[in-house]
Amino acid sequence: MRIAQRLSKLGPEGAFKVLAAAEELERQGKSIVHFEIGQPDFNTFSYIKEAGIDAINSGKTKYTPSLGTMTLRKELAKTVSEQRGVKLSYRNVAVTPGCKPAIFAALASVVDRGDEVIYPDPSFPAYKILIDFFGGEAVPIPLLEERKFSFDMQAFKKKVSNKTRAIIINSPGNPTGTIIPKEDLIEIADIAKKNDIWVITYEIYSGIIYSDKRYESIYSIPGMKGSTFIVDGFSKIYAMTGWRLGYLIMPESMETHIDYLLNNAVSCTASFTQEAGLVALKGSQRDVRSMVRELRRRRDFVVEKLNEIPGITCAAPSGAFYAFPNVKSFHKRSQEIADYLLRDFGVALLDGTAFGKSGEGYLRISYATNMENLEEGLKRMKIGLQTLSAKL
Ligand SMILES: Cc1ncc(COP(=O)(O)O)c(C=O)c1O
């Protein structure tokens, strides 16, 4: 039977592939330390769980409007207005079953066949895959370690053309943990405005940052509201990955289009999940703050231990929960090093090229796991990499 050509554009996310390989080794009796999956090991905070259970018990188990319940849309408009310093109404908000459907909806809304979309390399794999899926031309811009993994701005400016339809940014970024500096955001916004280019800003880690400075979003720059989508969600910040709750901030002019898109694709987001999300937003953010404090402690530990391994250099990430050490001195492909660490030392992590070509020479470690695992995994990595150096 013939299948649609566009299916050939799809591929799995590296983290899920390595997780499956690691689980297979576990089934064979091998002890594995998991650093591959980007999922907080924290449980969903109890007041949020209770809100979900109450919602189910009180019969909130039916369809809601495709764009989300009015109460949640209004609460999200209020929260995002306060955080980004831009006045929003519920008409700017679409609730989605996780961030990924919001990524899908934003790209589906702006990319036509042949349109160029600029995106960071390395970055979350779904960006490039979906640009290809929608028939667009994916235009990678390298992130430079010497710029703390921000865009190579020279390359960026050269790649903007009259075919550029959208620019994707992700801050704090996966896999690097980088927060894009304000001066870059201003320059990107300027170029986008001058050339009528959409900006899609992925801000799912905006609540997980390790400084007291206010989070800077490109959305806050004057003149951006009419041509910018924000994708954000509850998965990471409220440890709700399995609940499936995200949202898309959009210009009001897109409201009906996104409504129809969600209506035909998913009908709506689960109603009890939306109720739990409402309570998450309105509740005390104390649990979030203590989770971020703990993640910071782990980040400091991981970065210190990585830098103690001869041949590795690792800068401290400013947000998210990923370390992105440089392993170029081992003169092996990142993929080979990642495979070796999994096979011979039981450490499951991702090679940088799972996020794009410019990830060559790096590994990604998710430190959203407990201290015991971090200690064990880093000990194994040290032995593994010292053994590798001795063979060179
Ligand atoms: C940048 C980025 N966007 C989206 C997601 C997926 O979010 P969700 O589980 O809410 O779909 C992730 C998860 O790893 C991510 O790192």
Structural write-up:
The chain is globular. Helix 10 (286-307) runs parallel beside helix 12 and helix 11 crosses helix 12 (371-391). It has two domains: 5-44 and 286-391, Alpha-Beta Complex (Aspartate Aminotransferase, domain 1); 47-282, Aspartate Aminotransferase, domain 2 (3-Layer(aba) Sandwich). Strand 6, helix 7 (182-194) and strand 7 (198-202) form a beta-alpha-beta unit. With 392 residues, the protein is of the alpha/beta class. The strands form three sheets. Strands 2-9-8-7-6-3-4-5 form an eight-stranded mixed β-sheet, with helices on both faces. Strands 10-13-12 form a three-stranded antiparallel β-sheet. The termini are far apart. It is 41% helix and 14% strand. The longest helix is centred in the C-terminal third of the chain and has 22 residues, at 286-307. The structure holds pyridoxal-5'-phosphate. Pyridoxal-5'-phosphate binds next to helix 4.
